[in-house]
Amino acid sequence: MIPRIQHRRKTLLVVTDSQSLLAALNKGPLSQTDWTEDQIWQRLLTLTCAGWSVQLQFCYGHFGVHANELADQYATQTMESGQYTEQGIAPLWHTDLLTCFTTQLTNKWRSTIRQDTHRYLLCGTRPSDLSGKDLITPEVLHRQELVHLARARCGESELWGRIYWAVRDCTNQCRFCNISPEPSAYMRSNNDPTAPGTDTVPPSAREEDVSPARRRTLTRRRKEKCPHCDSTLTGFSNLVSHCRSFHPEHPPPLPELKCDFCDMVFPTRRSTAQHRNRCAHNPDATRHRNSSARRRSLLPQDQPASTSTPIGPQETLHHLLLECPGTLAVRQRLGIEQDLCLGKFSQWQLLHSRKLLSLLDHLFGTQMALYS
C-alpha cells in the first residue's frame, strides 16, 4: 500500500496481483461473504470517510518487471512496519504493456468502422460472441443457426433486407411498412406469403412447403403430352425418358420450338421457353419467376405507375426488432417485447439466440427452414 500526498490531496494506491480479490471487492461492501474481504472494505470505507482517495491497481506477480518489484518491495516494508513514511516516492499508475498495445489497436480499428451499416446499428463496435452458444439459454447452437444469426446481424439474407430487394424491381424498404406499388405487386405476383393482400390466397396456391428449386420447376416447366399414349408428363426431358422406356419402337420426340401463343419459332428450347414466359399473348406471363422478373413492364397492369421515392423505413433488423409496428404483434406473441422491457435478457443476447431465429421464422413463414 503506497500513500501519495500532493498539495494536500490524500491518495492511496493499492497494488495487488490477485485478480480474484479485486473482482470480489468490485461487488461492493454489502455483497461480501468472506471475513477478510469484509475487513478490507471496512478499512476502505474508513479511509474514504477520512478524505482519502483510494485507487486499486492490478499488476502481474511474475518477477522481472521493475514496477512490479518496486510495488512488492513497498508492500513488504509496509506489512513489516505497519506504516509507510517515505514522502518522496510516488510511483506512477502502472499499465500493462500488452494491455496498452491492445487498447491502442482496438481504438484504431473502431475508428475505421463504417457507421452506416446494418450491424453498426445493432452492435456498434462490439465484436460478435464466438462461444457458439445461445446467450439466453446456454445451449450449443448448430452451424446453420450460427450462420443465420451472423447473416441476420449483418443484414445479408436472401429472405429480407438488402439482398432480398436487390433481385427485385423495388426499393429497399420494409415490406411491413411500405405501401409503394412495386414491392406489393411483385410479391403478389410471386406468391410471397408476406406480401400485402395475400391473405385471401389459399395455402395450396402459395406452395409454402415446396423447396425453392421445386417451386421454380413447377412454375417454369409445362405439361407435355405423350404422342403414343394418354400419359401427360411435366417437362420435355421427362417426356423423352418416358418414350424411350415405354415406346422404344418409336423415335424420341423432337422438341417444340414454336411458341404456344404466337407463330414465332426459335432455335433452342431455352430461347423458346424464355420467349413463352414473356410473350404478350401469354395471360400468365407476369406470374413467372425468370430472368426478366425485375422489369417493371411485368408488373400487373392494374397497379399504379412506378414510384422512385422510397416510402417508409429501410428493412433492417434494427427496424424489425425495435421500430416496425407491423412486427410488434409477433414480438409480443413470442414474449420478446416483454422480456426486453423487463430486462430478462438484453438486445445483445437476443442477437445471439434462437429467439431471433424464431422471430424471423414467424415473420417470413417456413422460408427460413427451407434455407437451413
TrEMBL record:
Domain RNase H type-1, first and last residues per copy: 1-80
Keyword entries, A-Z: Metal-binding, Zinc, Zinc-finger
GO molecular function list: nucleic acid binding; RNA-DNA hybrid ribonuclease activity; zinc ion binding
The species this protein was found in: Trypanosoma cruzi Dm28c
Record-annotated C2H2-type domain positions: 224-252
Basic residues: compositionally biased ranges: 288-297
Region (Disordered): 186-221, 273-312
Protein name: RNase H type-1 domain-containing protein
Transmembrane stretches, start-end: none
